[in-house]
Amino acid sequence: MTSTADRSSAPSAADQPPSVRIVEDLRSRIVAGQLPPGSRVPSTRQITQEWGVAMATATKVLTALRHQGLVRAVPGVGTIVVGPDPIPPHSGTDSDAIDGSRPVDTGLSRERVIRAGIAVADVEGLAALAMRRIATELGTSTMALYRHVRSKDELLFLMADSVFQSYPLPVAGPDWRAGVEALCRLQWTVYQEHPWLAQYVSMTRPQLIRPAMAHTELVLTMLDRLGLSPAEQLHAAVVLANFVRGTAVNIEPESQAQLDSGLTSDEWMESQGARMGEIMSSGEFPMFSKVLAPEDVELDLDSLFEFGLHRLLDGLQVMAETRGPDR
After folding, report:
1. Angle at which helices 230-248 and 176-193 pack, to 10 degrees?
2. Domains and CATH numbers, the chain
């Protein structure tokens, strides 16, 4: 029989570390079937949002669930609940272990590490990308990753190379404007689907990523028909790339703001309605009041991209017309 003293000394749920409480909560959901086999469990970012804990705690939670054989990482998908045969028996000779007792997965490859890095960055952002975080996703040790990539910097380079390589370039047809527009739209799609990439790409210290350089080569090929000087061609190509990238660099912060606040950009603007009305009615900003008066006026990243792209192409069209017919 348990004595009163024994019962009083037993740790309560409130006394347990946050990671232990979250693990038990998720385990209960899995056992109860609320998270059936194949379903995604909350990501580290979602855990931080739902339970109000640090990213390190969220990472520890997913690691613990993997060690218990309840979940596994699937690059490009996330962490999912395992089925009847969750984890295949270890058949390698690697002696590294995540917790000092369990051997790591020896099925690693450079491609798997790159895919896992892209998956983490796509979902959680560039700031969350760390070698330890990727090791957690792959169910391995951090040191095991360094057998395939030398550093985080090299991994980022390889991730960017892989992403650009996965989007076929448009064919350069006879219409330079249609071709440049198609290329810019492709870049916009790439950045929308991989928001972290715009944060990584640099205009002032460009990385020599061959698939990205192919974008520049293609736009230069199309601009060469306009009769521009080499300097003008280069500046036009970089301005176009920087416009797309400079607009897209806002996608990841906006996604994070939506997660943090629980409000979409439209909902956030609506929440500012009273304050905006007060400012506009003061008469201090008459032009603001004028342009915001029409109900059909919309301003978002997509509208900025559309407006800016067409105006840049209009400007290049004027340059082409002043230089005579295409060469």
Report:
1. 30
2. 17-163 (1.10.10.10), 168-327 (1.10.357.10)
